[in-house]
Design a protein that fits this description.
Length: 706
């Protein structure tokens, strides 16, 4: 989750006037706000800066802001964090940020030193030094290194954290960029190694055809020593597609090249590329390729296939698929309470992480005499297990365990013996004594049981007076799972707040059908699920509307917008981060067209009719009373357009509704380009939440109303 907190906020109702354009108090048309969609436009940025100043002046003046930011920064910049590693050959690679390395360093150490928690780090790239040298606000976006020698890597660097990024070839032996090597300017292109002198280029460079979503429409073969313009096209999609890409799968010493034409966010045609020939595989477009193992292509199905239920892990010999045959077999099939959560492939085994009532287990599968045999890995199954790195050339694995109150533990495991070795456990970042985790279920409007996790003091008084923060996402098959709360634990739980994580439909917590239940015309079910959890918390006297706040980002920001416009009476605080809000235009803004398989197409009158019913921007009402909403976004977010938050806030100002607004001038879709910016954002959020939801009561005693 992957995851995003004197003068009192309630002392003054601020109804700011929209500046930078003529008075908009009489504006009624959606189009009157479109000037705010000009991302770097002078008038739009003038408006942003004035809103930022108003909000920051207010929240920075809060008595707790400085201490909140200092505590958040201490946690985020701590040197005793787990150095998350990726196994490549004899080394483990890590990207690290702290107070000294604000933008970060990319480094490596030997496997033996790493697994024994005695790393001797060799710095490969100092991003702070590079940014200073080139005068750029670089954000490290990851690496792709050429196996099996791992001597060359393709590094991704973006300015301010945007999705559009540079790619540069790096020499690991010399620890420097390769002069005249493979290099691309900032774009949404993607490179993938075939061999030392050849890469596949999914081309989104200026002047090349792109999909309506702004992603590559062509895959090309690019030879060393030639410019990108000389790359040869080998595969092409259509303009209405989301994107096309290559996928190089490794199976022992063999490479298998797949070409993927994603016609929607959830469907794709998969083909094999060999000797210049493209062969479409006879698989449904809704399968999700997970890897290859001993010649067997591994994939998951979103709908019933060959008699196997949705969300199964299936397999078929790749060479037979190329011949048009479909001998599909089952590796893993979920029960009613389970979902396939992750797949890892090592030299001799396939690992399956599954969710069971939103808690993880991991199975190791071995192929014996054409049959799959499984064993359960000896790991705690009360929280979340993540594959940190699975080495496809050996049976080495790095995996971690955590839950809301248990700091992350990192383990090195020998897949053959299943013996695990603790590498490191994150030190506690907050006082968890006296806290407990519960899983409860709310009934949604259609009777569906919606699970949610509650984290609170064991002696919590069920008097409705507890400051409570409710978080959810509810989209794109993304599962919200227990994770150590670090900053939220320090700034919220430790101070007596209640934290709630809701597993609403639209996510992947119970497999594809859980996601599909809230697609397109059924989107309202996700909003109903979320509101039902809120109502359940109120009915059980955990909290009341005066003390209940909600938070979500991206698709979760849409959830926030729809929920507070539909049920404003349920909440007193809303943190709405990098949100989608104008759903009648989302498909025309940046990457929005790629999400029509999730939400629908506003250009289709039938689909527009159901989108219009919940689109937050269109459903603000002059005669409704709303809680003071805190919008957060980023100018550099080139995935979800900052115009969504800008226009929503501007319309609220026009309707004289209270709101706060902060737009980070850099930071990308995460809204934070470095740890200092993240600490600022966390402090802003939690200062706002405590001011709106009131101080935590003493045991058994009600809190004062905000």
């Amino acid at each position: 989750m992957n995851f995003w907190k004197g003068v009192t906020l309630g002392a003054l109702l601020i109804t700011p006037h929209v500046e930078g354009k003529p008075a908009m108090t009489a504006a009624k048309n959606d189009s009157d706000y479109q000037w705010l969609e000009e991302v770097e436009g002078k008038e739009a940025l003038d408006w942003v800066r004035k809103q930022n100043t108003r909000t920051l002046d207010k929240l920075h003046a809060h008595k707790d802001f400085k201490s909140f930011k200092a505590q958040a920064l201490e946690i985020l910049e701590a040197k005793d964090k787990i150095a998350d590693g990726r196994i490549q050959g004899d080394y483990v690679y890590n990207f690290w940020q702290d107070a000294e390395h604000v933008r970060g360093i990319w480094r490596r150490t030997s496997w033996d030193a790493y697994k024994n928690n005695k790393p001797q780090w060799e710095v490969l790239l100092d991003v702070d030094a590079l940014a200073k040298k080139e005068g750029k606000s670089f954000v490290f976006g990851g690496s792709d290194c050429l196996r099996p020698q791992y001597e060359r890597c393709l590094l991704v660097l973006s300015e301010g954290g945007s999705d559009a990024a540079q790619v540069r070839e790096f020499d690991l032996t010399k620890k420097e960029f390769v002069k005249d090597g493979f290099q691309l300017p900032a774009s949404k292109s993607r490179l993938e190694w075939l061999n030392m002198d050849t890469v596949f280029l999914a081309d989104a460079l200026e002047g090349t055809p792109k999909t309506d979503s702004g992603y590559p429409m062509q895959v090309k073969i690019w030879k060393r020593g030639t410019p990108p313009s000389a790359a040869t096209k080998v595969f092409e999609g259509q303009k209405a597609d989301v994107s096309v890409s290559s996928l190089v799968l490794h199976d022992g010493k063999d490479n298998h090249v797949l070409m993927v034409r994603a016609d929607t966010f959830f469907t794709a045609e998969v083909s094999v590329y060999k000797d210049g020939k493209i062969t479409r595989l006879p698989l449904p477009t809704d399968v999700d390729v997970k890897g290859i193992f001993q010649g067997q292509l591994l994939f998951a199905n979103r709908t019933k296939l060959a008699g196997f239920e949705p969300g199964s892990l299936l397999t078929a010999p790749l060479n037979e698929l190329v011949q048009g045959k479909t001998p599909i077999a089952l590796v893993y099939g979920p029960t009613a309470t389970q979902a396939l959560d992750g797949v890892g492939v090592s030299k001799d085994y396939v690992y399956v992480a599954l969710l069971d009532n939103v808690r993880n287990k991991v199975l190791r599968f071995e192929l014996k005499d054409k049959k799959w045999a499984s064993q359960l890995l000896p790991l705690d199954d009360k929280g979340t297990i993540n594959f940190r790195s699975v080495d496809e050339d050996s049976n080495r694995i790095l995996l971690s365990y955590e839950d809301f109150l248990t700091p992350t533990s990192l383990y090195a495991m020998d897949g053959a013996t299943m013996q695990k070795q603790l590498v490191m456990q994150l030190p506690a970042r907050f006082k968890a004594d006296g806290l407990e985790i519960r899983q409860e279920f709310a009934s949604s409007t259609d009777g569906t049981k919606i699970p949610y996790f509650l984290i609170h003091r064991k002696d919590l008084a069920m008097n409705g007076q507890n400051p409570t923060l409710l978080y959810a996402y509810g989209g794109f098959e993304v599962s919200m799972q227990p994770s150590y709360l670090t900053v939220a634990g320090k700034l919220w739980l430790e101070r007596g707040g209640v934290y709630v994580l809701a597993n609403i439909r639209g996510g992947g917590e119970f497999g594809p059908t859980w996601h599909q239940a809230a697609l397109k015309e059924n989107r309202q079910k996700a909003f109903d699920d979320f509101s039902s959890v809120a109502k359940d918390l109120i009915a059980k006297k955990v909290t009341t509307p005066a003390h209940l706040g909600i938070q979500g980002g991206s698709n979760g920001g849409l959830l926030m917008g729809a929920t507070f416009t539909q049920n404003p009476e349920l909440f007193n605080a809303v943190v709405c981060q990098v949100p989608l809000l104008d759903m009648m235009r989302f498909h025309r803004l940046l990457a929005g067209a790629s999400w029509m398989a999730e939400y629908g197409n506003p250009d289709d009158p039938k689909q527009a009719s159901y989108i219009a019913k919940y689109s937050p921007f269109q459903n603000l009402k002059a005669d409704k009373k709303y809680p003071e909403v805190f919008f957060m976004t980023s100018t550099k977010d080139d995935r979800v357009h900052p115009g969504h938050a800008r226009k929503m806030a501007a319309r609220m100002a026009d309707l004289k509704k209270p709101f706060l607004y902060f737009e980070n001038i850099e930071g990308g879709h995460s809204a934070s380009a470095n740890l200092q910016q993240l600490a600022e954002r966390q402090a802003l959020s939690f200062v706002y939440l405590w001011e709106k939801l009131g101080p935590a009561p003493a045991t058994g005693k009600p809190a004062a109303a905000p």
